[in-house]
């Protein structure tokens, strides 16, 4: 099987090949494992391989022979390493959890029940990027540095860095990531793939190392919108929505005038809007006031992180620490954890007010109400199907002295509101992928998938990375 086949094939095409006997789950799994062995040493997307992958594939082939395939039968996946998957540690990238191996998260059980093959764990930005305000995305003490397959000297963004890079490099058919704010959308966009952050609560959240139950959700990351739709149907226990190339005909799309779009991003944005219009959509330019969200979100998240992480660590099997305070002390004593950047966000979280304090309640209520309000008012006022904005700018260089670079993002309103959002490849700026994010009120997941499919069909903007590049 040639690399182009890895990049281009969808889940329905994989299933047709298995149904006709042109391939098998075992052959596909072996091919992906060989591709990981060949390419991942330079990318660093895969933190750990599941030693049972071959046995999983053999069982899948038996179900094909018996005529009882599931919705994801024989499809090899990577799972972000803050999601529990039996037989492997769930580390969140931290050496403090290097021996902690809980049983399957409910969402992983759903994937297995649908016939998916868990290839292994994907690297991530340690503690889902809530450790340091000066961090470099894609780095964890357990997994090292994940690199962007489109340019190995560039950052893959985070925190679902390995999930995005692994899918972009076709090291798996798809991956599962998690998002609190931007951790699916940003790396998906920076690595040139499709990523869905579902409506909060539609995917089971148990078994995920937490930041905040007010914003955390898992979601699918793939190279094709149709694969996202199939994965999300399994994760959420719903029917796959019908996807049509002409889904944008008659759609009303609000175009967010983001203030921090540079010249290269402006060209991608202009072309994306032209593609929306060319595919039959009506567009309207609009402003979104995110000031109150920005002023209150982090304070709320830090307080929630302390409380929810303490609860998680207290019960995590074989964890080296049992509280946030013990984690901070562990990192100070470890010879790897603080090698490149500090843990000021962990320390701020430790000093945060309790969840029953008036200060915390004000931060959470203000952030959530502002986020929902800005989306709801724009959608109702303009009778919109969705709002779009650039999900990212060009991926920035990996630079431990400088850390991540602030740039354009469209994730925050939907993330804080608990609303769905999806990013689709929209073009290239400075030779690097840029994604267009679609978002809408709660429960609009199926409609966003349809619009995203229409945009994907109209633009065909995704390109496989040149993995021969040094």
Layout: helices, strands, pairs:
Layout: H1 3-8, H2 11-20, H3 25-43, E1 46-49, H4 53-66, E2 76-80, H5 106-113, E3 117-122, E4 139-140, E5 144-145, H6 161-168, E6 174-179, H7 185-191, E7 194-197, E8 217-222, H8 225-236, E9 252-256, H9 263-278, E10 282-286, H10 291-315, H11 324-333, H12 344-350, H13 358-382, E11 386-390, H14 412-417, E12 421-429, E13 432-439, H15 445-459
Parallel strand pairs: 2-3, 2-6, 9-10, 9-11
Antiparallel strand pairs: 1-3, 4-5, 6-8, 7-8, 7-12, 11-13, 12-13
Helix pairs in contact: 3-4, 5-8, 6-7, 8-15, 10-12, 10-13
Secondary structure: number of strands: 13
Radius of gyration: 21 Å
Mean pLDDT, all residues? 97
Give the strand order, joined by hyphens, for the main sheet. Answer: 1-3-2-6-8-7-12-13-11-9-10
Weakly predicted, low-confidence segments: none
- Helix/strand-derived class? alpha/beta
Quickly count the helices. 15
What proportion of the residues is helical, as a percent range? 40-55%
State the end-to-end CA separation: 24 Å
Strand percentage lies at 5-15%
Outline type: globular
Order of helices and strands: HHHEHEHEEEHEHEEHEHEHHHHEHEEH
Tell me the major beta sheet.
11 strands, mixed
């Amino acid at each position: 099987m040639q690399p182009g086949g890895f990049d281009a094939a969808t889940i329905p095409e994989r299933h047709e090949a298995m149904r006709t006997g042109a391939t098998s789950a075992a052959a596909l799994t072996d091919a992906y494992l060989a591709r990981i062995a060949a390419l991942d040493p330079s990318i660093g997307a895969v933190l750990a391989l599941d030693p049972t992958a071959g046995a999983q594939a053999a069982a899948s082939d038996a179900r094909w022979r018996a005529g009882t395939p599931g919705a994801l039968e024989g499809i090899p996946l990577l799972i972000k390493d803050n999601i529990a998957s039996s037989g492997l540690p769930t580390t969140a990238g931290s050496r403090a959890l290097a021996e902690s191996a809980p049983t399957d998260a409910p969402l992983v059980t759903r994937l297995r029940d649908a016939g998916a093959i868990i290839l292994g764990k994907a690297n991530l930005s340690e503690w889902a990027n809530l450790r340091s305000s000066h961090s470099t995305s894609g780095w964890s003490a357990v997994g090292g540095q994940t690199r962007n397959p489109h340019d190995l000297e560039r950052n893959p963004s985070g925190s679902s860095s390995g999930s995005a890079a692994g899918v972009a490099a076709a090291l798996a058919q798809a991956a599962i990531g998690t998002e609190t704010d931007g951790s699916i959308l940003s790396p998906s966009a920076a690595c040139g793939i499709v990523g869905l952050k579902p409506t909060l609560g539609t995917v089971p959240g148990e078994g995920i190392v937490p930041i905040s139950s007010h914003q955390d959700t898992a979601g699918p990351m793939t190279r094709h919108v149709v694969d996202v739709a199939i994965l999300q149907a399994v994760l959420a226990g719903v029917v796959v929505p019908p996807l049509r190339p002409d889904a944008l005909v008659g759609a009303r799309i609000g175009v967010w005038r983001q203030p921090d779009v540079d010249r290269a991003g402006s060209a991608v944005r202009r072309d994306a809007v032209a593609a929306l219009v060319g595919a039959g959509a009506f567009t309207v330019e609009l402003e979104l006031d995110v000031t109150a969200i920005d002023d209150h979100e982090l304070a709320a998240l830090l307080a929630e992180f302390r409380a929810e992480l303490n609860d998680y660590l207290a019960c995590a099997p074989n964890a080296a620490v049992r509280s946030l305070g013990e984690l901070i002390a562990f990192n100070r004593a470890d010879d790897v954890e603080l090698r490149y950047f500090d843990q000021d966000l962990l320390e701020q979280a430790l000093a945060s007010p309790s969840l029953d304090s008036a200060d915390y309640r004000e931060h959470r209520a203000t952030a959530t109400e502002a986020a929902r309000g800005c989306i709801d008012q724009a959608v109702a006022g303009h009778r919109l199907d969705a709002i779009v904005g650039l999900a990212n700018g060009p991926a920035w260089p990996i630079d431990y002295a400088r850390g991540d670079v602030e740039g354009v993002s469209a994730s925050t309103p939907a993330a804080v509101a608990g609303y769905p959002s999806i990013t689709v490849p929209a073009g290239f700026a400075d030779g690097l992928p840029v994604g267009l994010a679609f978002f809408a009120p709660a429960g609009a997941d199926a409609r966003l998938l349809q619009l995203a499919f229409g945009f994907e069909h109209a633009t065909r903007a995704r390109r496989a990375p040149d993995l021969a590049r040094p």
